[in-house]
Amino acid sequence: MLRKVQNKEQQIIELFRRGDASAMDELYACYADYLTAVCYRYIPDDDKLKDVLQESFIKIFTKVSSFEYRGAGSLKAWLTRIVVNEALNALRREGAAHEQKLATNLPDLPDEEPDVGELNEETLLGMIGRLPQGCRTVFNLFVMEDKSHKEIAACLGIKPDTSASQLHKAKALLARMINEYRRKNGQT
């Protein structure tokens, strides 16, 4: 149905504008796996992840008429923003993103950050998923969403210094997990 990969976003939007019944299926087929991976970075629990994705797709399908195409990648960016915002809303509802719930008493960052080049994506995402929620949320917003500590602080209702501290702790925990993984698998 979608002939040109470079124009798939425009074609999907056009299907929605025409009221074509296949629009939702096309959007879901193109982006469900990617959006699931985005959501998993914040919500590693399968049941909660499914709930957040469901809420995200409801919001996407009800708001797509207000989406304004701005060039290649703009639809994907818009979809990603919705999923990230829904994941953060879910974390807020749980109270996990509040400053008092953030990780404390964690190890310092090793002098040298471990090389993640040999780790497969699934293993690395699994490690990120095991981070405490506060660390994981800040790590994802900083590393994956390219947010500043000031932006993260505003988003989560914390101080920028707390965001920086949580990132430091997240990196330290990931370094420890990577080093343990390498020792167990004879990669040291």
UniProtKB/TrEMBL annotation:
Residues 27-95 form the RNA polymerase sigma-70 region domain. The keyword Calcium does not apply. InterPro entries: RNA_pol_sigma-70-like, RNA_pol_sigma-70_dom, RNA_pol_sigma70_r2, RNA_pol_sigma70_r4_t2, RNA_pol_sigma_r2, RNA_pol_sigma_r3/r4-like, WH-like_DNA-bd_sf. GO terms for biological process: DNA-templated transcription initiation. GO terms for molecular function: DNA binding; sigma factor activity. Residues 124-174 form the RNA polymerase sigma factor 70 region 4 type domain. It comes from the Bacteria. Keywords: Sigma factor, Transcription, Transcription regulation. Belongs to the sigma-70 factor family. ECF subfamily. This is Sigma-70 region 2.
